[in-house]
Amino acid sequence: MFTAFDNFPALLIWLPLIGGLVAFMLKDGTKVRSWALFSSIITLAVMALSLHYTGNEHVELQTVSYYWLKDLGSSFALSLDGLSRMLCLLTAISFPIIITATWKNPISNANAYYGLLLLTQCGLMGVFMATDMLVFYFFWELALVPVYFLASQWGGERRIQAAFKFFIYTFLGSLLMLVGIIFVYLRTPEQSFSMASFFHAQLTSGEQGWLFWLFFIAFAIKMPVFPFHTWQPDAYDQTSPAVTMVLSGVMVKMGVFAVLRWLLPMFPEAVKHVDKLVIGLSVTGMVYASIIATRQDNLKKLVAYSSIAHIGLMCATLFAQSNIGTQGVMIQMFNHGINIIGMWIVVDQIEQQTGVRKISELGGIAWRAPVLTILLVIIALANVALPLTNAFVGEFLMFSGLYGFSPIYAAVAGLSIILSAVYTLNMIKNVFYGETNVLTANMVEAGLQVRVMLAIIVVLIFMMGVFPGPMFDLLKQGTETLFLKTTVK
Amino acid sequence: MNAIILTAIWGVVMMYVGVFVHRRKARVYMAIAGILLLLITNWLELVGLTLFPIDSKGMLEPGNFGLLFNEVTFFSTLIYFLLSGHDFEDVGGNTSDYFALIFFVLCGISIVTAFKTLLMLFLGIEIISIPLYILAGSDKRNLKSNEAALKYFLMGAFSTGLMLMGITLLYGSSGTFQVDGLNMGLGKLPPMIAIGLVLMMISMAFKVSAAPFHFWTPDVYDGAPTVFTSFMATVVKAGAFFAFLRLFDQAFGKMQDEWRMLLAIITAATLLIGNITAVFQQSVKRMMAYSSIAQAGFMLLAVFALNQTGKQGLLLYATAYSLATIGVFAVLTRMKDYTFEGFTGLSRQQPLVAFSLTVCLLSLAGIPLTAGFFAKYYMLLATLRTGHMIGLVILAVLCAAISVYYYFRVVQAMYFREGTAGSTSRFSDGFKAVLLANSLILILLGIHPDWLLRLFNY
Fold first, then answer.
1. Pick among B377, B386, B389 to test the A interface (most A CBs inside 10 A)
2. How many other C-beta atoms are found inside a 10 Å radius of the C-beta of residue A437?
3. All residues at 6 or more sequence positions from B16 whose CB lies less than 8 Å from its CB, including other chains
4. Does residue A443 surpass a pLDDT of 80?
5. Residues on chain B touching A160 (C-beta within 8 angstroms)
6. What value, to the nearest 5°, has the Cα angle with vertex A458 and ends A456 and A464?
7. Inter-axis angle of helices B63-84 and B2-20, to 10 degrees?
8. DSSP 8-state code for residue A56
9. 8 Å CB contact between B64 and B458
């Protein structure tokens, strides 16, 4: 069982898992850091290698399936297709960046910290690659538990409550999803958890109606979509930097991904009935979060609310169900992950050096740390989807998709783009320009490793902004199979 | 049959051990030897070798499921002895008597896993209960322990009375004690059978501490010495559940439509009351008492569903629940302070103990990768399979989410709160090893429940 190492999905699960377990054993702080970095780079290398073997002739390298619980009809099935490849790539890229960028942060019990971080990576990879519903559920939870421990043990003063809120919310969501999973499972033709049989379950449209909500609430909490978002600003505000980056950069994509991978193909009829409602919720959430962000004085919460707005757009576009919009969402999942990690790195640098995260108490950082400022401005502009940056490609496609569904929704959603420019530029003005004060007078340039990581992010931003072709090629396979499934039903 | 005879014999042996063996540790080893012997002989019966061929005239017939359940019970007891056997002497000097009483309880459990007539059910339930009244009051100088024993005895006697009345009515109506003879199925229920059935349900609900017949549980579990609470809340409760399932499966299975609603109400009430009340507890011991009520609510789903999945699920649930709860109580016994604050800083002083305890608590909460997840999963699957009462399933998962709150309070105290209150306790290396092994079993069953459930095919 689970013994073959000769294919990519298995490796991508096992490497972080083993890396994490080894990290627990190490005692010395620097050693653990180096080990975690080494482990995540190996994972990245494997991921990069897997991109060379994407054709149909390499299918046995891209899929795994072992018997797991034979009596229940579940098998340990993973596969790398276009969609999961994109998100696995995001997971693989972000972990080395996160670990390097937070290298200098003081961490107590570093072995547990990095061990849990790598276990989270394992869980995320599993979620993105699972093609068996029970395996998916397993990894879904598996990604949650280490993050709960990470969020409760390291971070701000109210971290325990914030992490607990996050855990209870998501756990409740997953339990409701579990009921839905079991119900659908009982209606599958051959009583199996495989993706194919889940997509062919015999469900009346009435059943689809309420099952949809059981699943959607779980995913909506994770994304988070208004009105299930209340855990998020607290959690981002209170967790330690690396955890915030994992949460916002990679973990929230679990929800978007799950809607795309499971929810839409499973309940096509229900989706037709509720699409307006869900899009309405998402768009409301976008505008609502953007307005809050414009009035936000807490730097971390500002980024958190901007993230809610971005995710809201992704969710809305998914339910608009157009080919072009969906491609935009997939691209944007990757881009948003990269951009927001960049944002957090800068926010973390400011907080490490000045000890505050209030926008009103900061100012004039540009004179002290010009390189940091330039890098941040680029990332921030990417975050508001300026042309030539990666987010523009994604958001353009997403808006096209949404517009095709309904121009009104697209127009309201467009409001949040304007607002995002307002709060982002305001933030840049207040934090980086203006008068230097006592707190920021001693700011120095960020460490070399941080600048290099930010530079890598900036390069990625431009690369994908100017020349997005390779990304679409990567996705092609994914969307085609996906839409095939949706239309076949 | 092997188990019934050997538990009785070993109980008597343990009483004599108290006279002839004076080294305390040797007594514990004798008890462990006894339980190992039981594990082996019960297994032998499972594969077809009966040591004591007795003709019970059709009154006892364990069947594979019953034997498998015995095996699980004995295994839990083994872990219990290994973890807590040495703590018996903190309660009082008569350690071997306590062991003897526990073996008699096991004898009762072996009977209720095999009964074919209502008489044997009654006998088994009484053999389980009477030693427990003594164990609950074994801390003689402690008023709370005395109160627990008295309360337990009065409530137990009351529910036994109800059970006897139920049996009488059933006998009067059908003319037989055989459970198969009662299972006549469709058609309108005669009033005497209906009343008998309700009385049986109430008395069984008493024994498994299902709401609204749970009021004795918190006081008794809280008052009794912690080592014995551990046994009462796990092995005994699992045994009682098996009796409940077996009775309603074999005697009333075909009349399920008549009593399903009643049981659904009991289940819903148990889930709600157990979980919500547990949230407000300040003492971990009392929290565990309410948690045992809450977990009973989940196990009741097996009786509600009454299908093969439910039976498998009950076996898994009993194992997962017993092992996890025994682990929690074993650590709790050694804590100075039973409040949540008493656990602060345990992770720094005793990382292994804290880790194992966390696995136990995660399993009780039903987090994947622990046995508790699949236990809950099977219960939900069994209930959904019946096609009735999807609302009950939703209620159950909502309650499971509530349960996270109180189980995680212990985890939070151990890992995230500053303090050193948990540091005063001593844990021997052997204790840690068994505790760790226990949590590894929970994790293994959480990855591969098949390893246990496949035994059904024997």
1. B377
2. 12
3. none
4. no
5. 412, 416-417
6. 100
7. 20
8. G
9. yes
Q: And the tokens for A356?
A: 């505050």
Both tokens of A294, joined, read: 């414009």
User: What's the pLDDT tens digit per position in A403-424?
Assistant: 888 888 888 888 888 888 888 8
Cα–Cα separations (whole angstroms), residue A448 to A57, A349, B40: 43, 12, 65
Look at residue A484 in the predicted model and tell me its pLDDT: 46
Identify the H or E element spanning A77. Answer: strand A74-79
In this complex, do B404 and A178 lie within 8 Å of one another by their Cβ atoms?
no
User: Which residues of chain B approach chain A closer than 8 Å at the C-beta?
Assistant: 362, 367-369, 373, 377, 380-381, 384-385, 390, 393-394, 397-398, 400-401, 404-405, 408, 412, 415-417, 448-450, 453-454
As a dihedral over the C-alpha atoms of residue B209, residue B109, residue B325, residue B210, rounded to 10 degrees, the angle is -10
**pLDDT tens-digit series, residues B429-458:** 888 899 999 999 999 999 888 888 877 765
| Residues B449, A69: C-beta atoms closer than 8 Å | yes
Burial (CB < 10 A; 0-12, 13-18, 19+), residue B50, is exposed
**Would you call B390 and A160 a contact, using CB atoms and an 8 Å cutoff?**
no
| A135, A154, A171: best to mutate for the B interface, most B CBs within 10 A | A171
Closest-CA distance of chain B to residue A174, Å:
10
- Among A70, A141, A159, beta carbon nearest to B450: A70
A470: which residues sit within 8 A by CB, 6+ positions away? Answer: none
Mean pLDDT to the nearest integer, A331-335 = 88
Q: pLDDT band for position B76 (50/70/90)?
A: very high
Exposure letters A364-375 (e unless 16+ CB within 10 A, then b)? bbbbbbeebbeb
The helix/strand count (H/E) of chain B reads as 21, 0
- For B168-197, what is the mean pLDDT? 82
Tell me what pLDDT residue B423 has.
Answer: 56
Percent of chain A's residues with pLDDT above 70:
96
Instruction: Tell me if B397 and A168 make a contact (CB, 8 A cut-off).
Output: no
In this complex, which of A138, A179, A186 lies closest to B368 when CB atoms are compared?
A138
* Burial status of residue B426 (CB atoms within 10 A of its CB: 0-12, 13-18, 19 or more): exposed
- A76 forms beta bridges with A66
Which pLDDT score, from 0 to 100, does residue B150 have? Answer: 92
What pLDDT does B23 receive? 83
Mean pLDDT of B339-345: 83
The predicted model gives B118-137 an average pLDDT of: 92
Please report which confidence band the pLDDT of residue A477 belongs to, taking 50, 70 and 90 as the band edges: low
The answer for A 232-271 residues in CB contact with B (under 8 A) is none
Q: How far apart are CA B143 and CA B59, in angstroms?
A: 41
The average pLDDT across A392-410 equals 87
Instruction: State the best of A27, A134, A164 to mutate against chain B, taking most chain B CBs within 10 Å.
Output: A164
Which candidate from A141, A152, A160 shows the least CB-CB separation from B367? A141
Based on the number of CB atoms within 10 Å of its own CB, is B388 exposed (0-12), middle (13-18) or buried (19 or more)?
A: middle
Q: How far apart are CA A93 and CA A338, in angstroms?
A: 9
Mean pLDDT along residues A175-200: 87
Measure the CA–CA gap between A278 and A407, rounded to whole angstroms: 16
The pLDDT score that the predictor gives to residue B388 is 77
At A222-258, the pLDDT tens digits run 888 888 888 888 888 888 888 888 988 898 889 899 9
Q: Is A24 on the interface with B (CB under 8 A)?
A: no
How high is the ipTM of this complex? Answer: 0.88
